[in-house]
Amino acid sequence: MKSTSAHIGERLRAIRRQQGLSLHDVEARSGQEFKASVLGAYERGERALSVGRLMRLAQLYDVPADQLLPKDGAEVEIDLTRIDTSMASTMTLDLVRLNQLEHPDAAVLSRYAATIQRQREDFNGRMLTIRRDDLRVLAAVLGRKPEEFGAHLLQLGLRVGS
After folding, report:
1. Of residues 79, 105, 104, 72, the one with CA closest to residue 2
2. Cα(13)–Cα(41) distance, integer angstroms
3. Count of C-beta atoms within a 10 Å radius of residue 117
């Protein structure tokens, strides 16, 4: 069974090739932000991609971010352009618990949390509030339905409050 990174890599490669771009073309288009070797590693599923980097690649390819997510083999399809009111507008994560968690989703959640902390310049290290749109992207990346993602975080002991 392929990993999520491998599925995302296949989508990245397919979209890049559909646009007739080489890895070096994307490197140049990104202003050297994405090195060709790193893009290749993403496409081969050898390197994990943060949510922030995934969103940036979606901008570079001028495609909705959900188009970079795997379609085949994934039971969850999420329309990131639709406003989803089934989720809370925000959720707060327990970062202390996240750093202690041994679960396959922990690495993705930790990278995402670190990215958001850097963007917000919020380094309290104990809690992080995540907005609905970010939760939907995270749910998609982790192969979960948005309406069930809050319960998943609660089950992992990561969600602060109800």
Report:
1. 72
2. 11
3. 15
Torsion sign, CA atoms 28, 32, 34, 40? positive
Q: What's residue 155's pLDDT?
A: 92
> Cα separation of 52 and 57, whole Å?
9
% of the chain with per-residue pLDDT over 90: 31
Task: Tell me if 161 sits within 8 A of 130, measured CB to CB.
Answer: no
d(CA 140, CA 58): 14
Band (pLDDT 50/70/90 cuts) for residue 82 is: low
Q: Which helix (H) or strand (E) holds 130?
A: strand 127-131
R_g over Cα of the chain = 16
Per-residue pLDDT band at 135 (split at 50, 70, 90) = confident
